């Protein structure tokens, strides 16, 4: 147990100490009472102390209790401090930040995990308990279905079948044969070995169709749609009269999109690759990545193709990935991933869930009418799923700009110096379900792209250089150098 000042544990039970010792410590301020027979030496708020010591408190106050009902899935108190248990006690046990809510039950059963003076329901028991009755103590049917789907997607069919076998045995002990039938039907649907009833959740319906998806990611996409719907920036129309001003934009779009992914060339090297098809002998694959990207983004007909269905989304992703990664057979060009991929601590959608998650994510996009919002969403969807072994960022940005070009808006480039802001905004969206930073970053990049003179390489290089676009992101950040809008510099003068 953690120790604090004077050797006192973080949570002190009166039954473990002499009364005189406790009285003296309380009188001189070394301990403070936070509940009947419970003290702490910590200066933290009572509810904080209680929440971090809830396991010790449960084992001490209700020994032999079994964590059940809605608490069975998480195995801990909910956000409101509620913990549901099976115990002989008749009344709630209440402390700041913790409400232990008992009910009478059979006590520990085979498969329950024995912890410190209490037990945690097995998944089989937890599912049976939660499906047995519809009340505030229990998960909803939809939440149980989500639980089942999460198990099969995270742990596989064998584990879910094992849980069904365990539940079959427990149903007799718990006298819940009809509940087991419901659970078994739910598991069959999740395994695509039985039909999904019309009233079953969307996640279970998708699993039954063989289109299982990452439910946590779909919730993230729902939040993305909601926030983008509320914060769409002003559109930046691609005026035909200014089309010549952006003649070389596709070249720089391809250049920067590859550079921020680690495919680094000088601008002159990239120009020879794109315009002269002069492929460096030592880096043909890298060179083709740049050329393949350019061929996509410079093709106006190609960039006016946007998905009108989930099937079209998958078709476009596969075709565009094949074009970019054509010379990298080890990256399976034009094929979805078969092994898991990650970036740092972020583990992307599992291979077996990638297509289903893309389909579910696409359906949510119907709620976005604004072109910028739809563009940002499509980029985030592809980036978050990461359906390919490599090339995901480049494909995601192609999908983004296709939405803008189809809506006759200016596309977006992400200059090298802006890489940190862009990736940081994506990471914040993933980790915190907050998309304000991503909208701000893309809006700035959108306005920046509109202001650069891409009429020639000379004019583009001039604008890009003076606005710091070519600088390495990490070095620029260390020196407090940022991407500047050309209009900002024009106002300052020479």
Descriptive account of the structure:
The protein has 494 residues and is an alpha+beta fold. The chain folds into two domains: 123-211; 215-492, Fic-like fold (Orthogonal Bundle), CATH 1.10.3290. 51% of the residues lie in helices and 7% in strands. The chain contains 22 helices and eleven strands. It has helices at residues 19-27, 46-52, 54-61, 71-74, 123-131, 141-155, 157-173, 177-190, 202-208, 215-230, 249-259, 267-275, 284-297, 310-324, 351-364, 371-385, 392-406, 419-432, 436-451, 457-466, 473-478, 486-492; strands at 12-13, 32-35, 38-40, 66-67, 82-86, 93-95, 98-103, 113-114, 119-120, 342-343, 346-347. The chain has a six-stranded mixed β-sheet. It has a three-stranded antiparallel β-sheet with strand order 1-3-2, covered by helices on one side. A two-stranded antiparallel sheet has the order 10-11. A hairpin with a 4-residue loop joins strand 8 (113-114) and strand 9. Helix 14 (310-324) crosses helix 17 and helix 18 runs antiparallel to helix 19 (436-451). The longest helix is centred in the middle third of the chain and has 17 residues, at 157-173. The protein is globular. The mean pLDDT is 92.
């Amino acid at each position: 147990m953690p120790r604090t000042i004077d050797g006192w544990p973080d949570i002190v039970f009166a039954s473990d100490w002499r009364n005189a010792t406790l009285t003296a410590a309380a009188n001189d301020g070394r301990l403070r009472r936070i509940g009947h027979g419970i003290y702490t030496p910590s200066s933290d708020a009572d509810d904080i102390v209680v929440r971090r010591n809830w396991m010790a408190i449960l084992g001490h106050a209700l020994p032999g209790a079994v964590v059940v009902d809605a608490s069975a899935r998480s195995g801990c108190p909910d956000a409101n401090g509620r913990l549901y248990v099976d115990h002989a006690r008749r009344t709630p046990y209440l402390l700041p930040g913790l409400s232990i809510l008992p009910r009478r039950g059979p006590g520990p059963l085979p498969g329950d995990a024995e912890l410190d003076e209490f037990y945690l329901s097995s998944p089989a028991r937890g599912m049976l308990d939660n499906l047995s009755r519809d009340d505030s103590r229990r998960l909803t049917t939809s939440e149980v279905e989500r639980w089942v789907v999460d198990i099969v997607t995270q742990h596989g069919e064998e584990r879910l079948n094992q849980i069904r076998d365990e539940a079959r045995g427990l149903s007799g002990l718990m006298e819940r044969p009809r509940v087991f039938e419901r659970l078994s039907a739910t598991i069959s649907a999740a395994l695509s070995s039985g039909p999904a009833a019309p009233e079953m959740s969307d996640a279970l319906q998708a699993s039954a169709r063989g289109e299982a998806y990452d439910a946590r990611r779909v919730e993230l996409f729902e939040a993305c749609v909601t926030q983008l719907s509320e914060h769409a920036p002003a559109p930046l129309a691609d005026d035909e009269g200014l089309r010549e001003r952006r003649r070389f934009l596709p070249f720089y779009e391809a250049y920067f999109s590859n550079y921020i992914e680690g495919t680094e060339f000088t601008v002159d090297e990239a120009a020879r690759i794109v315009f002269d098809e002069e492929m460096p002998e030592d880096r043909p694959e890298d060179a083709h990545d740049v050329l393949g990207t350019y061929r996509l983004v410079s093709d106006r007909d190609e960039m006016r193709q946007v998905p009108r269905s989930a099937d079209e989304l998958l078709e476009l992703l596969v075709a565009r990935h094949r074009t970019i990664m054509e010379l990298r057979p080890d990256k399976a060009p034009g094929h979805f991933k078969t092994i898991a991929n990650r970036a740092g601590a972020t583990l992307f959608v599992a291979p077996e869930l990638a297509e289903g998650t893309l389909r579910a994510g696409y359906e949510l996009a119907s709620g976005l009418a604004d072109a910028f919002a739809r563009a940002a969403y499509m980029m985030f969807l592809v980036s978050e799923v990461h359906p390919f072994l490599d090339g995901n960022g480049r494909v995601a940005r192609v999908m983004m700009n296709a939405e803008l070009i189809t809506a006759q808006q200016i596309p977006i480039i992400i200059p090298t110096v802006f890489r940190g802001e862009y990736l940081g905004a994506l990471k914040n969206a993933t980790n915190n379900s907050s998309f304000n930073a991503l909208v701000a970053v893309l809006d700035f990049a959108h306005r920046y792209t509109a202001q650069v003179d891409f009429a020639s390489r000379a004019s583009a290089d001039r604008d890009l250089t003076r606005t710091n676009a070519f600088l390495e992101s990490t070095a620029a950040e260390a020196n407090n150098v940022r991407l500047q809008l050309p209009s900002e510099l024009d106002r300052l003068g020479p």
